[in-house]
Amino acid sequence: MGADGALTPVPGSPFSVGKTILSLAVDSHGGFVYATAETNPYFFNGVFAYSIGSNGSLTLITGSPFKTGHEPFGITVDQNGKFVYVCNSMSNNVWGYHIESTGGLRRISGDPFAVGSSASLSPWIPRAVSPTYPLAPTLKSKASHKTEP
């Protein structure tokens, strides 16, 4: 932000994120940003992971984009910054990922988690990681939070 309060672009901005950005989330520690995107016309979808530099710049994390289900319209990072959950509206499921120390993602064993048939599952995402919502125990009981190699 400039001295006059005006927004100024960070170095390297804008950042490329596939064909269509669908949603965005930042981890609770402010070190990583995750964007779900449609990456090509053949509906390969992914999570683009970036590390956030001290000046606000973004650096693509090795392995990005990380594969998701169909139409990943919602993404969230749990409050402890250890897991990412992606809501896939056309797959009617949620995929879970463990956040590695580099910011890279590794799928949680036991996913995807079915959430029924709905045209838009984005409202389910906050409930998936919040202990105050009923869906949280369902996902926690199905996932041991062990990660696949």
Describe the structure.
The protein has a single domain, classed as 7 Propeller (Methylamine Dehydrogenase, Chain H). The chain is 9% helix and 34% strand. It is built from two helices and ten strands; from the N terminus they run ββββββββββαα. The chain has helices spanning 124-129, 135-142, and strands at 20-26, 32-38, 45-52, 58-60, 66-67, 72-77, 83-88, 93-99, 105-107, 113-114. The strands form two sheets. Strands 1, 2, 3, 4 and 5 form a five-stranded antiparallel beta sheet that branches. Strands 6, 7, 8, 9 and 10 form a five-stranded antiparallel beta sheet that branches.
Task: Give the SSE layout.
Elements: E1 20-26, E2 32-38, E3 45-52, E4 58-60, E5 66-67, E6 72-77, E7 83-88, E8 93-99, E9 105-107, E10 113-114, H1 124-129, H2 135-142
Antiparallel strand pairs: 1-2, 2-3, 3-4, 3-5, 6-7, 7-8, 8-9, 8-10
Supply the key terms.
149 residues, mainly beta, Methylamine Dehydrogenase, Chain H, 5-stranded antiparallel beta sheet
Q: In CATH's first tier, which class applies?
A: Mainly Beta
- Determine the CATH superfamily: YVTN repeat-like/Quinoprotein amine dehydrogenase
By secondary-structure content and strand pairing, the structural class works out as mainly beta
Mean pLDDT: 76
- Described by the principal axes of the CA atoms, the overall outline is globular
Cα-based radius of gyration, to the nearest Å: 16 Å
Task: Give the proportion of residues in helices.
Answer: under 10%
